[in-house]
Queue: 4 jobs
Job 1
Amino acid sequence: MFLYSFFSAAARSDGAENAMPIKSRKMKSGVKTVASTAVPDGSAKNPKNIARTILRPESKLLALKNTKPIMTISNIKLLLKTAFEKNKYKLVSYFVGLYFWAALCYAFFTATEVNIMKFKMIHENYNVFDLDRSLKFYAEALGLLEKRRKTAADGSYIIVYLGNEESEFELELTWMRDFDRPYDLGDCEFHLAFRTDNFDAAHKKHEEMGCICFENPDMGIYFIEDPDGYWLEVVPVR
């Protein structure tokens, strides 16, 4: 639709002075009368007449009578040149609008990519007062073994990552050399949960270790407490 109006604008600009009316002639069907416009002699190269002949359906009757081909390369070039000169501001507006919408779509899809980023939990950190004691507890109570550790060059801290084959999630234990007292956990309203496939055996073991700190029989869960006072929930497979 835009291209039709683009080329038609050049053709309509001075159609009144370049066209000569001809007699209406009936088609072979004898039903419909078609009025057309003739192209004056010597005006075959006039781009406005060319555009009018190309774009108007009723010009087909005249096109059949012309001995010279209208759609020549030179005429097309002349038509494009004239159309561009008369519609260059429309073209500029069109491409500016196209650029604007392209930029808007790019910004939208870029923002959408940010909104759909995925995150994966990889570890939980607990600061501990006695690192060796904590390592022994987690190995015995939950089967978490040391996977790797980081030690400061000056010995001011040690970070140990614990885990097992059941999950990629790790428990990070941080020991600070200059921290000279047990950690104050406040109300301790947080915990880390573990699921076991043998709930009764786990409960018996933790009962023997004396680390069970809270039980909820109605929910079928219980909590154990590590040497620093962190609560750890134990739940069965459901």
Note: Residues 73 and 79 are 10 Å apart (CA to CA).
Job 2
Amino acid sequence: MILKRIHKIIILCLIASVTIVFTAYGTGLRQSRVFEIEAAFLVQFSKYITWPADRFKTEKSPVIIGIIGRDPFGTKIDRIARRFKSGNRPVEIRRINGDMADADKCHILYITSAETGKMTEINKRIAGKPIVLVSDTDNFLNQGGIIDFFISGTKIRFNISLTNSRRIGLKISSKLLKVAKRIQ
């Protein structure tokens, strides 16, 4: 009788630990997929945004996408960007370090959720420059962001702040606005 009870407890513990391992593994895969989709969106956004002409040195200058904080995309975003052209322009990915020296050279800046606490500093650094600020944190548009990602069911969606984009001289295509969940 005691052996049967111990056997049941061992089996239940084994099932519980396997369930925990697979749940954690599955969550990791889902999060990885989320960042892969967000990376593709970031690169694609460049096709639907018009920057003031003086924002580029030449007609062939690249669209620069910067990532502030610990890069969640890894090499995925680099692979996507290498195969993509925004009109005649290549897309270049840059990782921005703590001093944010190159942040104002970017056209699109992805700010990781861990770095959104530095929005005051980021906004001062890029003040008035036509840079698309993107993140996946709550209330990002109210902090000066232009595009914020969120998960809705099984889909990755985004909101756009037309007000913030117009304030800095950016034009967002109606095609991109049509697929946004909410426009502010």
Note: The longest strand covers residues 89-96.
Job 3
Amino acid sequence: MKSEYPQGGSVGARFRLIRPCRAKEGFASLGQSQKQRKAVHAFSATLLLMLSILPSGHQVYAADGCPRVGKLMTEDRALISVRLALTADEVYGGLSGVKDTEFKSHEAMLFVFHRDGPRSVSARETYFDIDVFFLDRNLKVVALKRKLAAHPGVMPVPPIDQSATVLARHILEMRSDSPIAQRIDKGSQLLWSSTPPLQQISACIAQWLN
């Protein structure tokens, strides 16, 4: 799934540890010997890596502290497990290449942006139909596209389905066959129910995309 960022980029689903661990920074001023600093660096990098991965293998935090997962709550109190697109590559890739068995009906991909802009989504290289929700800064649905048709592969025949371009802050993508997605409509209010706050995540993601 490809989503425009902000006028030509898109949304990504493959999560990676990309930046080197920032826990290293600042230790040089503590007066330790070079050997001690190396030991602290190695321990810090190992600790952050351990904290960033659940036993199931799902990454919870990127190497520099940006969360990769979270929860959204709907007006009827249904919980959505959210994957966050962090980097420009992830934002551009979206749900492209994600197989039907790899994305559950209670899951969503959330693309968090630092400011409003023109957003659109295409179905290039997708394997299941997708409902796309365009959100304002407060996570209220301002527009939506139902059943963006799956398009395995990148060939333009048949034509690749694409949403209209909408002025919005964030984008949420869910499976079209999700019972939760079917209850979300224009005007629906979603609630970020994880920590840190979404504004902090937005600032964190902005530094990855710059």
Note: The CA atoms of residues 24 and 41 lie 5 Å apart.
Job 4
Amino acid sequence: MTVRCARERAVQTIAYEIGGWLVATPAYAIAFGRPPGESLVLMIALTVAMLVWSPIHNTVFDHAEWRFCRRVASSRPHRVRICHALSHEATSVVVTLPVIRAIGGHGFWAALAADVGLTLIYAAYAYLFHLAYDRIRPIRHHAELPVIAPAPLSTLHDAIASPLAASGAAAG
């Protein structure tokens, strides 16, 4: 296996989002002077949106990394981990900005400021989370089987002819 299976991806995504609540909810409440309960409602709504987006982003990123680098996520070097975290957060704004506006009750600029702030928090969190997750639950894949060259036709002919010749000699 070169990428995480659907079950493992679900475990990864749920763990990521729960950890995100613990980090982002108090930060948002403090920054925007909102009660913790209201902040948690917004974080839960953002989590639902990200539960849809995260596995899509991570799977596309993992497949691209495998296709271009022949590397699995748990072998990802730090510079690519940074790109992964930044691309995840940069692309998530398409999903999260409308949620922040609707549930947070912010105008466009305040919602964008909240989104940028949460993005910065989550970018650092994503890097650390995925680093830890890949160390704790590395991708296990079967060692590639050795490539065995096909036998020359003469060897195949000898392998077939020898038993036939021996059985013919024994019969005669």
Note: Residues 3 and 59 are 8 Å apart (CA to CA).
